[in-house]
Amino acid sequence: MGADTGVRGEILATLPTLRAFAVSLCGNVDRADDLVQETIVRAIANIDSFQPGTNMAAWLFTILRNLFRSEYRKRRREVEDADGSYTASLKSYPEQESRMEFEELRAALTKLPEDQREALILVAASGLSYQEAAEICGCAVGTIKSRVNRARSRLVDLLSFDGAAYFGPDETVRAVIGAGH
Fold it and tell me: Among residues 105, 99, 139, which one has the least CA distance to residue 119?
């Protein structure tokens, strides 16, 4: 029973960063929540394949990433609201400056190549090490470092920042952009 409680605790501790990663991949909170739920269901169903002593978070991120990619391949052929007119009609515009800045950052993130966005979110926003992100993405640590660096540089260009002071006190935004480094 103690081992089950420990595994459950590890899974629960990972949920916030797992959800943030899912939102960054999907761009839709509801779909992200479904993706996280499916990830947890799959993880519990296949808990025997988890090797105790290894990184639970990396294992869960890998499951989530694989589920997202499978779902993406299935949905790639679907066309919903191709011109965006319906979506635009449902949009509520932000009322606070920080909300607008977040939306600008989110929009800029969508303009990054998928591999750069994924690396940046794993390392900067989710707090994983370069090594852990490399394992999740199935590539070399140097490749992850390069992707993160290129993503940060591109975000700075897209968002037209004039120095680190622009980033304000939000540590997550500063980490994603790399202003604190």
Answer: 139
- The CATH number given to whatever domain includes residue 68 is 1.10.1740.10
* Pair (103, 171) in one structural domain: yes
Closest of 121, 142, 143 to residue 18, by C-alpha: 121
Q: Which tokens go with 115?
A: 């591999």
Residues 65 and 125 in one domain: no
Confirm whether pTM is higher than 0.70.
Answer: no
SS (H, E, C) the chain: CHHHHHHHHHHHHHHHHHHHHHHHHHCCHHHHHHHHHHHHHHHHHCHHHCCCCCCHHHHHHHHHHHHHHHHHHHHCCCCCCCCCHHHHHHCCCCCCHHHHHHHHHHHHHHCCCHHHHHHHHHHHHCCCCHHHHHHHHCCCHHHHHHHHHHHHHHHHHHHCCCCHHHHCCCHHHHHHHCCCC
- Domains identified in the chain, total number: 2
pLDDT in tens, 81-134: 656 665 666 655 545 666 777 788 888 888 999 999 999 989 988 888 999 999
- In whole angstroms, give the CA distance from residue 12 to residue 15: 5
What domain range includes position 42? Answer: 2-75
